[in-house]
## 1
Amino acid sequence: MKMAYRWLAVLLMLGLSLGSMTASAAGGEFAEQKIVLQISDPNPFKQTLVLNVANNVLKYYGPDRVKIEIVAFGPGLRLLFKENANKGRIKSLVDNGVRFSACKNTIRNMGKKLGHPPALNPNAVPVSAGVVRIVELLDKGYKLIKP
Amino acid sequence: MKTTFKKTLLAATTAAVMGGIAGQAQAANWLFLQGTEPAGAAPRAKVWGFIQAQYQKDYSDPNASGGYIPPKLIGPDLTTQESFNVFRARVGVRGTGFPLDPKVNYFFLVEFGNNGITQPGGSFAKITDASITLNHIKGARIRMGQFKTPMSEEVYQGIAIFDYINFTSYAGQQLIERTPNQRYTANVGAQTLPVDQSNGGLTQFDKSVSAARDTGIQVFDTFKVGKWEHSYSVMVGNGNGLNYTDNDNNKDTYLYLSTEYVFSPKGGPFRPGVKAYVWSQTGKRLLDNTNDSTYNPTEHDRKRYGIGFKYLKKPYRISGEYNKAEGMIFVGPHSPTFDMNPSVPPGNGEDGKADGWYLDLGWYIPGTSWELDLRYDEMRRLIDDPFETKWKTTTLGFQYHFNRKSRLTVNYALRDVTAVNYGSGAGPNAQLDGIGNRLAVQLTHIF
């Protein structure tokens, strides 16, 4: 009986820590800050800048205390191209709970110019429209930052 | 718990930043830095360039008759021993014309400065680079057009960050190729000052220097294995420098291999690492070396090859090269026919040999904007020829970096040149004995 209680305690602790890890990976249900970063500029320097900002915010708060979503649309969608030179940084930010949203309107329009849809980073999550996604996030209490 | 977490995050962030930069695969890999753009992160058109304004003073003595040979005068005009000059002023555009397709890049650069590229004919400007790169095939990127040919990294590196003002004797004479004049051009003797330029003075050239460039097609790429980067390049070109089209049916072949252990992916062109490379260039040149009124050129092999290394981890830099040359040995702007002396049997320049090496040391004084440089170089020109000469130069230098894009460079070169088969004052030494030291000051600004 004593042994059974011990196992139950171990399972409970395991469950709790797994739950905590999931919350952490997702940015945390109890995040103190919610931030949406907009990238819509053709200037490649802005790509570096938006990733740096996300990085710095993560560093300051810690992934369990901040939720960050980067919404890319217009010329800024190039950040989420499959072969983008920053793909290593994107992967690392995703691993720390940052979400990357790709505007479907832009994907469609770029596809017309390219003759095929652009190949996207596997970590990019398509959303119906970049601006609409930002408005939704603002309604949920996110703060908009446009570096 | 919080501290541990922060440490983990910091490590992850650092890895992310490093990974991001590594992904761009640029830095001091000159194949990539000069031939490609970062995928998906290149502008449609990035305007860039640099200016190098300089002052040089030569302390050589004239020969017994008061005449000066080219090494005693300031290039490219060779009319004085002291001069200010806008040596390089280059403006270019690079990027990806259609930003939605990151696989196609271009590179365009024009020289407006006064040097061997623009001096012949007093050109106002000259296109040095115009190329397109296709990045569609992994392991075999393709570049076509006119651009720098992979070779000795003293020459191949981005010249705006070259740590000295003047090239080593070997690079300046045997790598920055003087393409032969169309017709036989008589040697010019030592000139008294001021130099009479009505007939071109000491510069009798009808074409630009090659500037280590050629028009052709190149296949290249870099492979990363952990912290190692292995690169290759194979190129076929006209072998006719900056002259766009070929002047014969022969093509030059350029081969280049390098391997580098990258200490840290940060640092741009100053990325810390240790690198070794080997390269070769083989081709043929047409040379009209008969003093008559007929165009009767003969064909001569031109081979250049070498090995080199570079260690860079601030505050220290060590680099060195050993290079060899066979055929078309340039013996100076006063001898544009590639003969040192037309009165001796021809062939001492066309089919001659040369070699050269250098060792370069740099110390970036920690906590300051100062850098100290020291380079020793040697060249043997026309090896085993009666007119073999040995060139020894020790260059002392310092640089002050105002910021990452602007710096002052000061060099003082101690030179010793001797015709090894002649005594002091005899034969060519009557001219060479007087070659003295040279002061050079240069301001560089990259924009």
Note: Chain A touches chain B at residues 42-44, 47-48, 51, 55, 58-59, 62-64, 75, 78-79, 81, 83-89, 91-93, 95-96, 110, 113-114, 118 (CB under 8 Å).
## 2
Amino acid sequence: MIYLNSFLFCGIVCLIGQLILDNTKLTPGHITTIFVVLGCFLDVFNIYDKIILWAGAGACVPITSFGHLLIHGAMVSSVDLGYMGLMSGMFNLTASGITAAIVFSFIFSLIFKPKD
Amino acid sequence: MEENKYKRLVAKHTPKENVLNNALIAFIIGGFMGLLGQFLTDIYSYIFNISTSDGTMLMIVTLVFLGCLFTCFGFFDKLVHFARCGLIIPITGFAHAMMSASLEYRKEGFVTGIGANMFKLAGSVIVFGVVSAYVFGFLRLIIGG
């Protein structure tokens, strides 16, 4: 059942993005930025956590989960540290994704040559 | 009069994109990305005997790895052009943006090329994500006390 939910949720997020891309003059960069801010906003009152319970990894694959993980890490560490925790815990949960993207793209750009 | 005529001419020759078809392709490809993510998470949790959140982390690293690797092989650009938001909205789009920027600026050297331009396309995601997370978190701390 969770497979169907993850298919539906991830598909619908992509569908909304495609509709925005086709019907406005926004570029893909604008759309990913909008979705990150949207993911942040949805986690202000823990709505996104409920979506993850329902859709499983289907809610973790879209870029909205990047915004959700940013604010989630900040809020978790602000329980102990207060306002300083917002800054120190910001990258706690997203660090693996960002580090992977930086390391892999650096190493691969040494190995491969750009294809035109 | 001339201007109106010109506008009509431009509108006539602008290639019309099939909105419904594009949306369907994005829905199906994006859905399969979500399915793949769920499948990988379950497999990792089962094999390594770890919690679902750790499995999710490994799954994201795997998808980023695949996105970078396929961009290097050259056929991911065509896939992105075909599936559009079906591959841009998932985390593979983030990996694709970073990888193509660092490949493109590689010839300008390591520091001024790769180092300075790696976040050229993907930087806006991080900047707006961090700023909005900080603002929203600050507001929630004030409201929640």
Note: Chain A has a mean pLDDT of 91.
